[in-house]
Request: fold
Amino acid sequence: MNQTAQDYYIKGIDRCKNDNFAEAIEWFSQALAVDSKHHEARYNRAKSFFKLQRFSEALDDFNILIELQPDNAFYYSERAVALHLSGDNGLSLQDLNKAVELEPHKPFRYSSRAFIKERMGDLKGAIADYEKTIALDPEDAIAFNNKGLIEEKLGYIEQSNKSFERADRLDPKYDPEKTKKAPASDLPKIELHKKKEQKLQREEKLTMKGYLRLVKSLLTTRSERKAFKEFLKGFLKRKS
Reply:
């Protein structure tokens, strides 16, 4: 019996669950040989390449995903991370600009771009993006903390102290158990890969929100704030 692209894809996912990314890539590649437009297989192959630090190959897959879905902000954001780790912050910033353009209502688009702007030396631009993040999500303690670090670097001591104080006061209020879910009857009938892509975008937001749970315990001293900044850099690299 001939196996379908979905059969190969499922085998690849099983390998990913065991962190066997090299074998996962082989199964995802077989899925794509059967169906070159199997978005889930291509995305997960890109992430597997990413886990193995094979960034150029990950970029090849992200390029194709963006060709197939040029209005998918999530793919631009993921490619931006791969570009950053490949040493191309200029192109990374272009992708993050596109992600902001496509989803200007999502605060984490601005905070991601702020990170790259800071790395490129555009400190005032980074502050502006953190301020936009805060305007959209006034309880984002991470944004307040990172904004304070940059203000401190620029010598804006009064502003940085206010940012740190606000970060210290904030308590995360996000509770995934209380997330309102739409009734099943309200959900549109869409193809499997579309559902999975929407799930990936939700997970991206949940991951960003989840780190707020660590803020109060980590940001108790100035030295811990600086250590936390390094931790956030690791988060942006999507290292789990």
Remarks:
- The CA atoms of residues 30 and 133 lie 41 Å apart.
- Residues 104-177+187-240 form a domain with the Serine Threonine Protein Phosphatase 5, Tetratricopeptide repeat fold (CATH 1.25.40.10).
